[in-house]
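Box S1 | Example of a co-folding query
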Amino acid sequence: MQTFHSHDNLQFHRSLHHHPPPPLQRSVGIIGAPFSKGQVRDGVECAPSKLRAAGLLDRLRQQGCAVKDYGNLTFENVALDEPVNGSKSVRTVGSANQRLSEAVKAVKRDGHTAVILGGDHSLAIGSIHGHTAAVGPVSVVWVDAHADINTPLTSNTGNIHGQPMSYLLYELQSKLPPLPNFSWMKPCVSSRDLVYIGLRDVDPAECYIMKLLAVKVFSMTQVDQLGMARVMEETCDYLWDRTKKPIHLSYDIDAIDPSITPATGTPAVGGLTYREGVYITEYLYQTGLLSAVDMVEVNPLRGRTEDDVRSTVSTAVDLLLGCFGRRREGNHLPDYSLPEP
Ligand SMILES: [Mn+2]
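Box S1 (continued) | Returned holo structure for manganese (II) ion
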């Protein structure tokens, strides 16, 4: 008769995972940021409540996380917010991001991994700013179909959700005009500490900027060439060349192929598969360094059907669960014990 000792179970686990388990990022602080003025389409401000309604918090708790919900931020609409150098809603975006920066700083000082539920991608300005204000320099992993690195002077649309990276990088400060309601904001990311994954819709000026600054890019071409496992290995090798810093993951849902996540403002064909998208989160979780996560550009009003919205929201939830230890091989709580007959 074969007996089954918990010791056997342990051996089995050791053979599966060559490394000891990493420190767990199991304390999650959630900030809802229902903000949409970094672009022009209504609906993206509904995403935080949709993500909560899809069970995000309960499911994080079920997989062993301590979750604190800081609720939704409220943002003021600045009156008479006329375009500046062609950029729209600059004052509104500036004051919203100042508020978000303070909120993220507070969540980090409380000791949580911060989760920012957008909202559009202009929120990365305040999110990354507040993150670095609390913990010092960070590595940024930007998963997106777009580079979002236009300056206000190169942008074709004037939508600030296509510009946040240019505000954040030290190296581009001389290229930015002064902007109202942005005086609180100081650049806080070195181009050496930025990696893009999933790019496939990049403006000429953005392409030029990334070459000028020698930014590390894994476009969809490199994802096709290397496979996502190698992309993630090379991402971390690159970021850890000097020191291991806390990681800020800024995840735009439009990085995933629109066949899976159609409910978003600027879909681009030829994106990441669900599996590639989830793999990024699983990989970053097991580094033990994930310190803040943005989930942005889910727009429930952009789906043509209920299924479009459901698929987009549930994928966003799965990506966030992956950031906090969900494994496709299954999970159990550390104190689980088999019922005795
Ligand atoms: Mn984006």
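The pocket of manganese (II) ion is lined by residues 121, 144, 146, 148, 252, 297 (CB under 6 Å). The longest helix spans residues 90-109.
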